[in-house]
Amino acid sequence: MRAAPHDQLPSAALPSDPATETYTFSTLSVQIAIAIISDTTASHLVWEYVAHAIVATAREASEARETKNS
Fold it and tell me: Source organism's superkingdom (predicted)?
């Protein structure tokens, strides 16, 4: 059985809910570095969180544009 991502990576590197968290790219870079340095075998899991952060950031930007245009 595979451990959950939060069991493999340091908590400082993970949002509590990656789908709703947004990050600046510099903050995200630091979190990725912490995760990779802490556990290189879990680096594939980092990309899952990167994808969630990018989607959340894009969603937030889209909502901000919609709010601005209305």
Answer: Eukaryota
